[in-house]
Amino acid sequence: xxxxxxxxxxxxxxxxxxxxxxxxxxxxxxxxxxxxxxxxxxxxxxxxxxxxxxxxxxxxxxxxxxxxxxxxxxxxxxxxxxxxxxxxxxxxxxxxxxxxxxxxxxxxxxxxxxxxxxxxxxxxxxxxxxxxxxxxxxxxxxxxxxxxxxxxxxxxxxxxxxxxxxxxxxxxxxxxxxxxxxxxxxxx
Amino acid sequence: xxxxxxxxxxxxxxxxxxxxxxxxxxxxxxxxxxxxxxxxxxxxxxxxxxxxxxxxxxxxxxxxxxxxxxxxxxxxxxxxxxxxxxxxxxxxxxxxxxxxxxxxxxxxxxxxxxxxxxxxxxxxxxxxxxxxxxxxxxxxxxxxxxxxxxxxxxxxxxxxxxxxxxxxxxxxxxxxxxxxxxxxxxxx
Lengths: 188, 188
What we know:
2 copies of one chain form a homodimer.
Chain A: E1 2-8, E2 11-13, H1 16-23, E3 31-34, E4 41-50, E5 55-63, E6 70-72, H2 75-81, E7 87-88, E8 97-102, E9 107-116, E10 119-122, H3 124-129, E11 137-142, E12 148-157, E13 164-168, H4 169-174, E14 182-186
Parallel strand pairs in A: 1-13, 2-5, 6-9, 7-9, 10-12
Antiparallel strand pairs in A: 1-14, 2-6, 3-4, 4-5, 4-8, 8-9, 10-13, 11-12, 11-14
């Protein structure tokens, strides 16, 4: 059972209201390029993520607007920024780290930074076909010079969904994975 | 069977001759603090690692001088620098990536950048005690929210040795490991 890899660099999701604070009341999110998940896209707009220790400029917004504002970073990013974010499923901001998000028209302080959990996007039909209906999480085996096994890869069903595994840059780089590489699913 | 973790940030080993080019003929490597491996230390001197794409300043030299000049970086560092180094055991510079190393008195261009393999330093007695005499490589199991298994962890015997596993920052951060964390050895 195989799944292809999609690597998530640090990025931001914004609510409609927060987007307007950062880019102005009349601004709209502009599509730069669609990403694999249906309806989602990398926007042309970028923001700065700032902490008391450091900042990242030109961080991508992933559109469209959501019901929560969230900053997804890796542990490597977290050390650079001097924050200690929890590992969370997207949308769960319990204990998320405080960061300042800066746009051309305004800035906001939000407890919004998380390390996204490893997860696989999957639609119901694919889940049934692969026998994963009652499975919450899997592991994946990576072959190669820096291969190994990643545990706690959550199955995230949505309909529609593009079937792929999302990893952050730490997980990808530690195992020398590139976008669209295929890895093997293991049910423990 | 457990082993503790030592995390290697990007660093440089220098030959005596290269050290003198970078820091001057009269310079000596000054000990900032000893590291766990017997006789080795982080030096006070720092260098800049530069490529056509980017640079890292204040990169540590690990002393004492060696018979080869080597720059150990992570895959994340490699993307930043725009190089594609191979995974290598320390001292094997086959196919190593070209970088410029800059010191206060001079600079050198060397095909010296590698991604160090995952490895465990071990002395002969510990190897015998643990039943690892005829084992070349092991895997290690990491427990936690971003746990998993790291394959291809090479056993590197030296006498004396401080028994510990060296990982780069990508491997450590991907699995949320900190210095001195303990992980479990698996023989496959």
